[in-house]
User: What shape does this take?
Amino acid sequence: MDILYLLIPLSVVLVLGIIGVLGWSVFSGQFDDLEQQGERILEDNDRPERPGRPPSS
Assistant: This one.
């Protein structure tokens, strides 16, 4: 029974931490445009890369 005095507050802190991380990711724009990276590979990129330059990402 004594372990419940430890586990219940720890689980509440864990849930609040998960909600905080989810809220931060939503409000910082992590989920704004989910299709952009999937459509990026379909774009026509006919520009040849110049030697000596790192590839653009």
User: Anything to note?
Assistant: The first helix runs from residue 4 to 27.
